[in-house]
């Protein structure tokens, strides 16, 4: 179905996992400002900064799909976020339009809706409630993707990813964890769909204590295979009663909803 | 629970499958204009045209439930549809009322809601959006069944059947397929329910990429066992990117939403 | 905007009111099986039965809008309804398609949703719950209109008219009354709309005790001027407590929900 | 997480099952007006009437969670209900507030919503529709718990328990059954939750024909393991068609919706 | 329509206003524990305590409608509330059932839903969120009324009254004010309705800044004539910016949501 | 209530109207990059570019409310939009946070939801569907305002303004027009509200053919006084039937949904 797929953020944690998995099906071009270790046979490499418009336009050329995973992935100063996540995401979408790309999959984040209380039971129609500049930039990307779909017919999915890593690391992760292979399945489902249109999907594994309702995108067929619950005994062993009004406990975004979210280095 | 059940369309594809399955539990009377090959022991046969009012009234006599599966099952001229599907369905419901029948299960169709975009996530409360005269006639039958329930207390289920056949035959079928045994389960659940009332249920197997939401009829306990996904590798092998605005791709009804739906022979 | 508008049922109660009102703005062609008394200057007349397909096709030719108000307007035998309301409505829509008509306004009825309890607070998305064959035929017309819009782009409004007459005549009418001039306004709004698309609208005046929620078609700008409440003192003067479970009291359709609805003459 | 949990109704059917299960994780204090047979090692016992305010206040002291399962559990005279279920529940909540208790789990009942028709598909936001004084008292307890959460921050879950017993005993039980171990899981999930807040949850096993929708409390992770369906063959063996308008068949509350609900002894 | 209507709380602020207004249409029997000053010609008087069951049963006899306005109308001790509002309301409903009364109108209160944030936009389906024992008792009365309607067919309206007095007295009153004549209209609409069934209605005038949505009871035709806005200039003259997280500002119940609601005298 | 209010975009069309109106109630500081003609007595002036962070921070100092109306107000290049509308809006919100400002009113736009079909009947919970980079930037501002409310407690309203000018100029304007005095009322309501919290409100006059549903912000009391309908005869005089699938006719954003939206000059 695809002759070449661009993956931005290819040198990041998720990108490194995705590269070989995706490349088994469709040739990929890996893009990052960091070098790509040991490219796979047939893998193309584009080394450039998301904020470098011309370089990004060039990287998208010849690709009929884009997986846009490059970004500052925690809180930053507004100027950091403005360059990498806002300007950078424009560069990717506009590059896709110029290149005639058919589909763009965007790594959005649960932090675009971080300020919903955990019991809210939200679905794909939930309005943005970002918890950081980072979260605002993800909401911006969803919004920009909506415009490119409506105006130019570029099919689009925004994946509101929870906590994508090897294993969940705290109680919150029992709800928000997304395993690598479930992330991969989400992407494949979006690429394979006969009609993708415009979709907002939550990136969570089949967790017993999951928060997010993907029923409005059920037609895409994402059926996660992993479940954070197997880590529950270890994670709950020393759990204590917590203050239900503590923002890190009350809201979906966890510690991002406090005054002290994890921060990108400035230099 | 039932001393005799009338099955119309008994010689059709679905009818042929259902006859022996149903007859194991409850005596059936098989009705079709075509001959019934090799009736089962104890099976009664009524050979008549749906448009023949007196014959249909007679066929329903003595039956405490009716499964109305007889119809022109693809697009026809309006006059064909008017006789077989509209007049014929009236004949069945009115016959049931006269005979004191308690429940009528009606084979409606996804083509009664064919013009919803595939991402609509519709449930039992979705208004009609038929894609053909055929679809309009199915919507008519649902509506007529509603009246017979409200006015005369005849319990009723309309099954909006997807693609009921041995195997799915195209990408769309990955979502719409209904296996024969899942069809059978749907019918049994409706017949067995302590209270059926009035129900609209989607006829789809437990497909990974299913479109329709049966949660409003969850109390009836339909839990399909088959999944079209096992046919996915074969069906997707040569799949291409398609135009998301092509009516056959955009809407639930598929090719019925184009100018060229499959057509019933005229002679 | 319109060079000629066809009005079916032009000799009926509503048609007689509408003819001169509409003709002030746009030339009309009045169609009925009964003769049209004293045609207006410039008014064209087409005398024919709704069930006469060729005659109806001919009547629609040259019209860029159709107001389809012809029908059996109370309960009839199924065969009466089948000919006049089901076959007849097909003839009108199909005639419109062949003639290149742009908009069809259909006089549907509250009896298409007559079996909702009065406190239901339903809107344009309410599923059919017809109370008679008459009501079923109106639901059929809405469904057919949906198909002609989706497939052929003919813009369409179905007006679920309450009780359209000079004055309300009973307690129920305090809720269901539609004055003639408010009916006229509804039609004008539908004809004038920059985009009509597909709309289901309830035909009720600005009644203090109105049941139906037109908010989903608020963009069309129907703002009724009359209110049945001015007749309340007379209509409630001798009112008694009634049985809340009596179908004529419980349901929107009133006496149509009983075993004894008003009936069309057979001969 | 808890240094001591109070269980009221500890000598009842559910209490007897729960005592050893809970005590494995957290020390319990068992409270009932009936004697507790063979207390477990480390189990504390408080023998008192729910209507005895001072005794209940004393029983709650030192407990950081309360499971309030004590009540008249079928229909009673209003005065019986007023003392045991209304006054008694106040005593428990007010005792909890005075003792600084963090969480109260309340055994509510499906009879708080017994008058919904079975096809209603209700969820945690369903308004009370009680079927008896008993049901009214359960609705009272939910409402009181809401106030203690909003005003005093006591986290709270009301469990609308279906039919909790060894096995389902009738057709209705195929939908309403809650196995003992699934009840236990519900309670554990509520106690373990990082943030419980205020939750209304339906107490039903993973029944094929379940009626109630727990999706709004899905974040708590209750995933029942049992299914009443295994009892279906036996329970349906001699099933007959029933009258769909019989209150015991039409409504969720079953026989509680008739004039003859099971009654508490008066003496 | 009514031969006699019982009004409880007849000597209270609202009762005093209502007595002469109602008596113009239908003979009333005024009930209060306080004496009724100067009974009107034809007005009957029943002096008794709401907690006196036999006296209340006797007071209801011969009345085909009851307006139950008697209650402790601010916060009390639980025991005060239990007797006057909970036991007392049971006495009224049970008396009505025994007397064959057809309709009961219950003065509920906005304090039954006091803990909704002001921007919640709630309607008749809002679940209880009481702010005091007083509010809990009003939720209890609504729930009890629901049971008497479902089980015994007594038609019922619960009026969630805002701030019913001569004039609004604070900023909150710009939203919650209910004028006396609008209260009277609400009651008349409920008594006059052809079918009342079970209704929950918010008691607010046509206030510019109203919070509550009565659209689900629009069929009853309550159209308030007064508007608190005319008092806005005076009430806002010295208004200051307030803390949006102060419970008295954040929630609908105002000062009832704080630790210091107005309290009924104890003696 | 306010000692000083900052108005950005003070020299623009809306700003010029608002300056004297607002200044009657509360002292204003007018900010624009263009000069302010004839400042009013007591009016402060701050001349600076929105993209100049330090200047904006300084302009906000000492203001307890901000009306942020400065922006590129039609389509621009992405870089123009990035500086003026994205970076500029950050500067205003962050300045407000640093200055301890209590409320920020943001001039958002209907172009943030321009791609909804006109019949969608959307309300304050509608997700972004922007039609231009301009629309994306307005969605960004709403999202940023949500974060500043959730994290820092700055109360916020985003006004999705339709067509704010002297008079409507085309058919679309019959729905989208907002008169200057209605704009002024919206702002005053937001400033006066006892609790504003976070609100999204549509900026349209009381137009007969209005599209947007402000019911979720009804508590704020915006009741527009003007109605575009008085311009209907002139605007509809030569109206023609239009193509319902033309993006400028189908979608709310009108010509902004085509390839040729009005564009900001580049130089």
Describe what you observe in this structure.
Six copies of one chain form a homohexamer. The first copy, chain A, is of the alpha/beta class and 267 residues long. Chain A has one domain: NAD(P)-binding Rossmann-like Domain (Rossmann fold, 3-Layer(aba) Sandwich), CATH 3.40.50.720. Chain A has eight helices and nine strands. Chain A has helices at residues 13-23, 53-60, 78-99, 133-152, 173-176, 180-192, 232-236, 247-250; strands at residues 5-8, 28-32, 44-47, 65-68, 103-109, 155-161, 163-164, 177-178, 198-203. In chain A, strands 3-2-1-4-5-6-9 form a seven-stranded parallel sheet, with helices on both faces. The first copy, chain A, has a two-stranded parallel ribbon with strand order 7-8. The A-F interface holds A 78, 82, 86-87, 90, 94, 115, 125-133, 135-136, 139-140, 142-144, 146-147, 150-151, 257, 259 and F 78, 82, 86-87, 90, 94, 115, 125-133, 135-136, 139-140, 142-144, 146-147, 150-151, 257, 259.
